Amino acid sequence: MPNMKANRYIFFLWGLAKCLNLTYLFMFSNLILIFLKRTKLKYTFQSSHQQLPTFNKMSPTQERKFLQRLFIACVGLSFINLSQSYTCKSPLLQKCICGKTNYDRHIQYVVNCTDTGFTNTEMLAELPEETQVLIFQGNYIPELPWNIFGEMKDLSLLKTIDMSNNGIREIKGKSYHHVTNVERLILNHNNLTISSRGEENYHHPRVFSNFVNLIELHLTNAFADNTDEALAIDLHDIFVNSNLTKLYKIHLEQNEIKRFRDQYVFCDLPSLLDIYLGNNF
């Protein structure tokens, strides 16, 4: 029968390893082996298929010291990971956090600029080319200008853009370039206007035209309050001109939508499977 105390150690070690970035997992395992050798704790393998170590008997004092030292090692390596991996190199991105972390159940390179007080998008032209996820929330950007990611960047690894809660009112038709491989665009909780109002023209039919591989479009509470019933017509025009042939999920909750005057509003989205319309009128 397996040693119950040994199993407790195995689960404890597994938990500590989970708190570290995978980059440091090999370092952590070597640290454990060094510690075992120094404390002269013997371990054997139960069987060739289990490959789980079983420790000989420890006194309560030995056990406590063993677990305490492993915990300290975990915390120490976590701080090393934080200091080395989460500093953005560009001076314009110093308020942001850059590095590999767990996002959407995967280890990805994330640039996080949440609540940084930005009032323009100049820093987005300095995104590292290894960026896979951009989180740019809680700032104040009423207008997205042309080419927010610059003109020469290779952002082929970028998969997710989250620009929620930025007070965005207008997105220019050429705001998003270098987004060919982006699969998820999140614009929740903004103040978008996509219609023409008097002399002001906020309607840019090709606003999403560069998102040729977009799968999810999140527009929850994204439009200006009291949006009129022409919203469906404007959306339809955008969908026709944006070539969103791979889009299968769209969120339109909390937008005060009373009805869609254009019954064909979603007909130019051939892959669309999920439409979320909760909490509208």
Report on the architecture of this protein.
The longest helix has 26 residues, at 60-85. The protein has helices at 4-18, 25-38, 60-85, 231-242; strands at residues 43-45, 53-55, 97-103, 106-112, 133-135, 143-144, 160-162, 170-171, 184-186, 196-197, 200-201, 216-218, 249-251, 274-276. It has an eight-stranded mixed beta sheet, with no helix packed on it. The protein has four helices and 14 strands. The chain has 281 residues and is of the alpha/beta class. 24% of the residues lie in helices and 16% in strands. The N and C termini lie far apart (63 Å). β12, α4 and β13 (249-251) form a beta-alpha-beta unit. α1 packs parallel to α3.
Quick summary:
With 281 residues, this protein is an alpha/beta fold. Helices cover 24% and strands 16% of the residues. It has helices at 4-18, 25-38, 60-85, 231-242; strands spanning 43-45, 53-55, 97-103, 106-112, 133-135, 143-144, 160-162, 170-171, 184-186, 196-197, 200-201, 216-218, 249-251, 274-276.
Which series of helices and strands comes N to C?
HHEEHEEEEEEEEEEHEE
Report helical residue fraction: 10-25%
The low-confidence runs, each spanning 5 or more residues with pLDDT under 50, are 42-54
Tally of individual helices: 4
How is the biggest beta sheet arranged?
8 strands, mixed
Strand fraction: 15-25%
Radius of gyration: 26 Å
Instruction: Kindly name the structural category.
Output: alpha/beta
Rounded to the nearest angstrom, the distance between the terminal CA atoms is 63 Å
Q: Count the beta strands.
A: 14
Shape: elongated
